[in-house]
Write the structure tokens for this entry.
Amino acid sequence: LGSRNGEMDLRHLNAQGDIQLASFQTTTIFGEALSREGSILTTSEAAGIFLDANLVAENGRIGLSAQTFVEQFKGTGIYEFEVVQKGRSLEEFPELALTVAAPLGGGVAAQAVPIIGQRSLGRNAETDDEVIEYFIESIYVTNPGSGYALGEVPEVLLSAAGGDPANPAPPAIEGALVVARAPANLRNLTAKDAIAITGRDRVKLVNVLTSLEGDVIINSTSGELDLSADTLLVHARSGNVSLTAEADRIVVDRVHSEGPITLIGVQGVVVEEEAKSDAGGILAVADAGSIEANDLVAALGVDIEALNSIRLTGVTEVAFGNLSVFSRGDGIK
């Protein structure tokens, strides 16, 4: 799919082979993108990539490349509505308005439109006119919103179309009941092979990134690499992890790999919880900043180098290699 001059808003993509998305402006992916035998490759030539979706490449790789940013929404949107009671109306072509409450923790409210169905009840005995009953057939999501907590159930209000939102009139279809629910699970990125993500201005991810057999490579060329959310884990089960902020700093909550872990943030490196390499080493470098890390666990050595201070607040453990910590300025704490 391609958009030469505009944006792309996509949801629920499913393919046996590759999923390739290219746009000039912002690309937003909602819900899920699943490739069973291929890869998921997304580029934005002049803007960024927003993600509120599970991205799964069961037998391929995931590649995200943006001129400005790659960012996951904190929280999630509303993608599914359940019509619990369809309701009924004999009014001809009733029009309904549907309003979804905003996220409790703040964010953008979802928007959706009721799809009206109809069925014949036979003919009027006096006029011989056909009697049509109208009801809510389904709900079409026009904007899933963002910021809903996992599993959050916002209030859904049905009212007469065109009324005063502050004082809504009763809906033309009586007895209808619609329930909205945010997804219960995190919107993760999972690939059999490598995951590669590049953004110029910023890269901000909040959920779990897992490569089953390849490497995880994330690069921010001029802005911060923000992987600080407590729901985030960067995981290369059989490969390496490389995180780079070429002109800014790296903040990561947890990173786990089979092979080496490389953390290069020119303005600084922060490991909030843990960096763990089961069979490799850990390299952390801040050429123009400081390094602060909690737990660092590696099989084959830990090398840390910074222009300014180095602060190690948790456990630093090396099984079979060397531990090297070097500050060119403010010392080691």
Summary: The CA atoms of residues 75 and 149 lie 5 Å apart. The chain is about 0% helix and 55% strand.
